[in-house]
Design a protein that fits this description.
Oligomer: homodimer
Radius of gyration of chain A: 18 Å
Order of helices and strands of chain A: HEEHEEEHEEEEEEHHEHEHEEH
Number of strands of chain A: 15
Strand content of chain A: 25-35%
Largest interface: A-B, 33 and 33 residues
Largest sheet of chain A: 8 strands, mixed
Structural class of chain A: alpha+beta
Chain lengths: ~270, ~270
């Protein structure tokens, strides 16, 4: 079966990637400007944080996307979905890791994904406070700061138990359902965990700085750029579950990184 | 009872802090130079990583410390202890988070502590790859990038369960003894964990970016600057256990950060 994305030429894919990179630049400038002017921070109904920078950056990206790519819809954390029927959809989280951002920890990032007929076509994760950016596009490879990413698999003997695994905190496992035992099983079997709690986990899994990583019950905008980044780097991406949350829409659990490790973690978390 | 450190004048303490900052500058330059020339990475007998930058930086700091402060001993990760009888001891880890450093994650740091009669007198944690440095000295306050750190306590009602807690990975809890159940209890009770796995956890606890943090069975050089940073910021530091490891010498477990949270975590982990 032909992949629907192959209907697009390399030039078309390249043009979309160019838009994605430009939107990420715009996000970075907007966040800088709002931060310099003085940030306001408040708590949303679901108790998560939002800042004036999140809102300003998402508005700026939406306005620019509408001008550059009027044929595309947008799905974003702060202002919902526009044009859900469009073939192309921007899936954006201007500040993923708002709590880290508000705390002054430089681990947050901007996620700009582009989906074509529900499949990831291009993706950028920018870490402005680390001066580091990853991008990828369909059949065009994945890059971190201009360097091509090539993920090696584990040896055929499989995981040793020392692999570096990125995970959300246990909070994510008990937020919408009681899956805390999955986190506990993961920590017992693969104890060398990292919890950065932002998309730094995702870029680290795409670059091999982590051997694998996962998200648990995460909305689409948290994962908008991850699959294309990891798959174009030669890694595997497995969706473990999908459900519909009344306010967030679809939330997914997924594991991604070196293929044999992804299979082992998927078996552990699905079992 | 008078604190032995009060025998030193503010000018003496200031001079020692100046030396600590200069040693941290030297470390940063040495690591930059070795990295630019091309890093070599190998595995030590205990399976932990060491790079040519760790060794070069510790040698540079030892040489400079011997010249600047001949009256002081040095305890470091790579080259052991010199002059254990000295009143002043430099306690240094040139690259804390070597695994993160080798993986290209910017979360590692340089730890420079100065102890006087076994009590912390001054401390610097430098994060070169984040462009961020914390320092503190006895009765002189704690600072992050020149800004005074002042930790507020939790309200008298105590922890809500949403506090942000920095911890080492579960690997640390099972490395020398089977204390994995302590990690599991922590994750269940205070699920909003972060695992940076380096001294970024410590500077985050001193600045309030994390509400509290802990180390588990960590050698002295991992904790050489932490207590003075946290206490001078107005936080609490509690040692939970000390034991002697045949190769590492003393290893300690400790919790530090906002005082009421430190007490709650200490009760949880000691219980």
């Amino acid at each position: 079966m032909r992949d629907p994305r192959d209907a697009l030429s390399a030039a078309q894919v390249g043009a979309w990637l160019g838009h994605a990179l430009a939107l990420s630049d715009l996000c970075r400038r907007t966040i800088e400007q709002v931060s310099a002017a003085g940030l306001s921070v408040e708590r949303k109904a679901d108790r998560s944080l939002v800042t004036s920078a999140d809102r300003a950056a998402e508005q700026a990206v939406r306005a620019s996307a509408a001008e550059r790519t009027p044929e595309a819809g947008v799905l974003g954390e702060e202002f919902g979905q526009s044009r859900p029927e469009a073939e192309f959809t921007w899936v954006i989280d201007p500040i993923d890791g708002t709590a880290e951002f508000a705390a002054g920890l430089p681990l947050w990032g901007t996620i700009i994904g582009l989906w074509y007929r529900g499949l990831p076509l291009a993706g950028v994760i920018d870490h402005p406070a680390l001066g580091r950016r990853a991008h990828a596009a369909w059949r065009a490879g994945a890059y971190l700061d201009g360097q091509r990413l090539v993920l090696e698999d584990l040896p055929a003997t499989g995981p040793s138990g020392t692999e570096r695994i990125g995970t959300p905190s246990r909070t994510a496992f008990v937020k919408f359902r009681d899956a805390g035992a999955r986190f506990d099983a993961l920590a017992r079997t693969l104890p060398n965990l990292r919890i950065f709690h932002t998309c730094l986990t995702h870029t680290s899994a795409a670059s091999g700085a982590l051997d694998a990583a996962l998200e648990w019950d995460a909305p689409d905008w948290d994962l908008g750029a991850t699959r294309i980044l990891v798959e174009e780097a030669g890694g595997a991406y497995r969706t473990l579950s999908e459900r519909v949350h009344p306010e967030l829409g679809r939330v997914s659990s997924a594991v991604f990184g070196r293929p044999r490790l992804v299979e082992a973690i998927a078996a552990l978390l699905e079992g």
